[in-house]
Amino acid sequence: MLKFRTVHGGLRLLGIRRTSTAPAASPNVRRLEYKPIKKVMVANRGEIAIRVFRACTELGIRTVAVYSEQDTGQMHRQKADEAYLIGRGLAPVQAYLHIPDIIKVAKENNVDAVHPGYGFLSERADFAQACQDAGVRFIGPSPEVVRKMGDKVEARAIAIAAGVPVVPGTDAPIMSLQEAHEFSNTYGFPIIFKAAYGGGGRGMRVVHSYEELEENYTRAYSEALAAFGNGALFVEKFIEKPRHIEVQILGDQYGNILHLYERDCSIQRRHQKVVEIAPAAHLDPQLRTRLTSDSVKLAKQVGYENAGTVEFLVDRHGKHYFIEVNSRLQVEHTVTEEITDVDLVHAQIHVAEGRSLPDLGLRQENIRINGCAIQCRVTTEDPARSFQPDTGRIEVFRSGEGMGIRLDNASAFQGAVISPHYDSLLVKVIAHGKDHPTAATKMSRALAEFRVRGVKVRRHLAQRLTTAWGCPHGQEPGRPQAAGAAHAGPGSPALVCVPLPAPMTRPETSTEVSSTLLL
Do the record's keywords include ATP-binding (predicted)? Predict the structure, then answer.
């Protein structure tokens, strides 16, 4: 039975009463067998594991955690109903990549489904296949789709077949430095090396001249090999100062595909996202339509099911280019949830059970944008040491909270030990408001309330960048009395925009934040 409650602006889908049979579907919907999920294991750690555990608990599903020897004291272990050690004797990261141990735990403890989270094994087709072979459902796309989307070269070919524009690049992974030379001779500089079998900024190197080619090729190969177990690279023409726009998609086992609008992830440092915003600010409505339409078109071309993200670059002329599909839940899925009121993890689980999107009340015409949401990643990085990850024990922790603020974290508490072995993410701070300026003001206020002692954090960077989002190109937040000041939006007197100093770089037009803005 569907259950709703009234919220401002309409009805909100709260959940589905779990029964052994699915409700009747529309006559034109192909019915597959519905199998309720009773126990879910998350093959991951940290905040994403806790995020999935919470969704499972809300749905009445029992939860299972796995943890490495270095993670015995981590919070995600405490939040699950059951927890099991994996990767005994292995390096910290390798423990979470050890498929045999993870499958063994799942089978021995009657796990119905595995959620991969993000990172680690989330985009490994062999892991999805191993789950399927063991009779355990993989909460994500089919192994074949994971394989196709994980191979950046094949994903590019699929995009071309679907009529989606792509950046000029190689049709297959390059096998030598000589091939990179030949590509540069044809298309000129700058170019960018990318890992063929992974993402997240690893294995990416921008090259501006022949003199830089060999060193960056070697580094990109080494990074890709270390991060994904495969150093294969492909080469693309580098689009300078683009916007990085991604579209959230959701599909089911019956061929239904919809989008949940876009996120702007243009604020990055070393190809790592720092601030994400939904919907994208100052985005032309026609461009939004093209981006979302092409995302759905691509998903249908490959037969996509479950949650995923189609990523694009948008150049200064408003042309968009497909770059990749992330066949998993993104770190920044939170902002999409805030503006659409759709719980993406709930949806993932229901789709894996065999429900259709219409069963869940999810139809394209019903997906609406409600306000704006911004996410900032507060990380344990030391700005004084070129943002190197910092480690140690948190001696003091006070978070910023209040109306419109959501915190997703796992290690953000007094006494927590920040390990050098894993990602430096401490807490995701999400602000939701009626418009961009309101959300930016809430975020700035929340970040200002944070107090962290014992480890260095990248808080002030996120605070400065966030407020810049509400201002037009060439301006930044300032005081009302400043010359040329103008309100950023109706009803938002707290955020006022003034001309940027000459050295500043507008973050929405660059995938690399300028050094001036970082400081």
Answer: yes
Cβ-based neighbour number of residue 489 at 10 Å: 17
Phi/psi for 388 (5° steps) reads: -70, 140
User: Can you identify the CATH homologous superfamily of domain 177-237?
Assistant: ATP-grasp fold, A domain (3.30.1490.20)
Return the domain boundaries, the chain: 39-139, 177-237, 243-468
Cβ contact 222:233 at 8 Å? no
SS3 content of the chain, % helix, strand, coil (to 5): 30, 25, 40
CA distances to 85, 140, 169, 208, 424 from 327, rounded to whole Å, are 27, 7, 21, 31, 23
CA distance 310 to 250: 11
Identify the helix (H) or strand (E) that includes residue 285. Answer: helix 285-302
Q: Strand 243-251 to strand 257-269: parallel, antiparallel, or no bridges (unpaired)?
A: antiparallel
| Domain 243-468 part of CATH 3.30.470.20 | yes
Written as one letter, the residue type at 186 is: T
User: Distance between alpha carbon 48 and the CA centroid of its chain, in Å?
Assistant: 11
pTM for this one? Answer: 0.80
SS3 453: strand
> At residue 20, does pLDDT exceed 80?
no
User: pLDDT tens digit string along 64-101?
Assistant: 999 999 999 999 999 999 999 999 999 999 999 999 99
CB count within 10 Å of CB 78 equals 11
Cβ–Cβ < 8 Å for 488, 470: yes
Which CATH number is 39-139 given?
3.40.50.20
Do residues 348 and 115 lie in contact, with contact meaning Cβ atoms separated by under 8 Å? yes
Amino acid at 349: I
Question: Which residues are identified as catalytic?
Answer: 328
Contact between residue 121 and residue 96 where contact means Cβ atoms under 8 Å apart: yes
Contact 281, 470 (CB under 8 A): yes
Strand order across the 486-487 sheet: 475-478, 496-499, 486-487
Beta bridge partners of 192: 206, 236
What burial class does residue 303 get, using C-beta atoms within 10 Å of its C-beta: 0-12 exposed, 13-18 middle, 19+ buried? Answer: middle
User: Rounded to 5 degrees, what are φ and ψ at 180?
Assistant: -65, -40
pLDDT of 111 > 70? The answer is yes
| Residue 131: φ, ψ to 5° | -60, -50
Q: Residue 9's pLDDT is what? A: 41
